[in-house]
What we know:
Elements: E1 19-22, H1 25-32, E2 39-44, E3 52-57, E4 63-71, E5 74-76, E6 82-83, H2 86-95, E7 106-107
Parallel strand pairs: 1-2, 2-7
Antiparallel strand pairs: 2-3, 3-4, 4-5, 5-6
Amino acid sequence: MRMGYLLVTRCPLFVSRWFHGKMKREEAEELLDHTQQGMFLVRESNNYPGDYTLCVVSESGKVEHYHILYENNKLTLDNEGYFENLIALVEVRSVFRCENARALCIVCASV
């Protein structure tokens, strides 16, 4: 079972403040609008059931959406780094800058 649970750990995703579950692209943009660079959230993908979307505020203040692909029982954002679960992916992206999702530094917490 993958939807709503972190892979491997089976820990409910709602324990992660940055995970917002089912949310439309427009809702994510509204929530992140007028926030600072690096503010981010992760939501379930509407276009690719079973996958996720990373939404992050860029340097220009625009909300960018990145497809987190579930492939071969792992998650990837760029087809180079593969992760066992969303927490691992977000932790790595929070620490290192990468070409796609700059620094993820501020959590947009779910309520």
